[in-house]
Amino acid sequence: MTRSHFWLCCLALAVTTIANVQARQALNHINTICSTWGRDHFKTFDGDMYQFPGMCVYNLVSDCHETYQEFAVHIQRSKVDGNPKVHEVVVTINDLLFHLTRNVVSLNSDVINLPYYNAGIQLERNAVYTKLQAKVGLVVMWNGDDAVMVELDSSYRNRTCGLCGDFNGIPVYNEFIHNHRQIHPIEFGNRQRVHRPNDDCEDPYEEEDQALEALAGDEHCKAFGPVCNEMIHSEAWSSCKSLVNPTPYTQACVQDMCGCSNSTDDFCVCSTLAEYSRQCSHAGGQPPSWRTPEFCAKTCPFNMVYEESGSPCMTTCTLSDTSSLCEDHKMDGCFCPAVYAMKEDGTARVYPVLLLAQWKRVPM
Ligand SMILES: [Ca+2]
């Protein structure tokens, strides 16, 4: 090989490597995602993970750099059977106010039917998620239960407020630094409260931070360490471990189990595993099928089947090609088996295989 050939080869290799790295980075978008789940856990855009047990209305994230606010996402939790669940997500985009509850969605106080496509906003619901996607550069996904995820366009970097932090790419700064002093999560969370008229909700006491910290060091809680460790660090999750650090999720799992009166309750065992699985998918990994009929089982409507890592493109299952629930990566959800197709009204039925061949079929 001549010297010029050698350098050409090196250059080609370098270009290929850079292209691969860029493709992986494009696939891995957890740095533009903020989420909340389980027993009051939050992960900011910049990667801080903390617990905030507030039950009032809070600003999860809003655009706060300019005098004109383009969007805001507010949430409220309430306790159901002793466990915190998100019961309301309110999304404001310019002058549109979407009010999402488990069963009803309203726009500026009028109940609307889903799917909704208008004014650069798509609002859809599948068997697992309600998803709002807005052209201003915002995606909100809620599982109707404990978990909300917000993905933002990178143009909002360093110009957000709320429980999701400032999106400046630096953990702790300036979320947990206020007037040059470090603040605890409860003080930080209370600052994000949205005050409403006639709101008699009480903020959690800032002393609860010490109580939460003390609980983490408690012998009773420490006992859950090996259980959580075994679940999250098992070989089945190997493709996730290289993409998403499992350690904070192990700690969150211990906090979930520890805060439960009945540690075999699905909420205690499953919510952080479910979040780790979602984060893994967003990072471009392939979470294992970790749910079983006996462990954190998920049921699906009709004859759909639950998959932890399936293609969310409902178009493969419907007769229309308009769904925006498609993502670059796979995610959890209910999917149509090959011999079923979903009609546009959301009902599924068996179609003759010959007829189905005219449409895209879902590989099992
Ligand atoms: Ca930050």
Could you characterize what this model shows?
With 364 residues, the protein is an alpha+beta fold. It has helices at 3-27, 185-190, 208-216, 219-222, 225-232, 238-241, 247-258, 266-282, 353-356, and strands at 33-37, 41-43, 49-51, 57-63, 71-80, 83-93, 96-100, 105-107, 110-112, 116-118, 121-125, 130-134, 138-142, 148-152, 160-161, 177-178, 181-182, 305-310, 331-335, 340-342, 348-350. It is built from 9 helices and 21 strands. A hairpin with a 5-residue loop joins strand 13 (138-142) and strand 14. Helix 5 (225-232) packs across helix 7. The protein starts with a helix and ends in an 8-residue tail after the last helix. Calcium ion (CA) is lined by residues 46, 165-166, 168, 170, 173, 175. It comes from Merluccius polli. InterPro entries: Mucin_vWF_Thrombospondin_sf, Ser_inhib-like_sf, VWF/SSPO/ZAN-like_Cys-rich_dom, VWF_type-D. It holds the Pfam family C8.
Between the first and last Cα atoms, what is the distance in angstroms? 48 Å
Range of helix content: 10-25%
Return the CATH class of the largest domain: Alpha Beta
Give the name of the CATH architecture of the largest domain. 3-Layer(aba) Sandwich
Order of helices and strands: HEEEEEEEEEEEEEEEEEHHHHHHHEEEEH
Shape: globular
Report the total helices: 9
Briefly, what is this?
Helices cover 24% and strands 26% of the residues. The chain has 364 residues and is of the alpha+beta class. The protein folds into 3 domains: 30-190, Protein Transport Mog1p, Chain A (3-Layer(aba) Sandwich), CATH 3.40.1000; 217-282; 305-356, no CATH class.
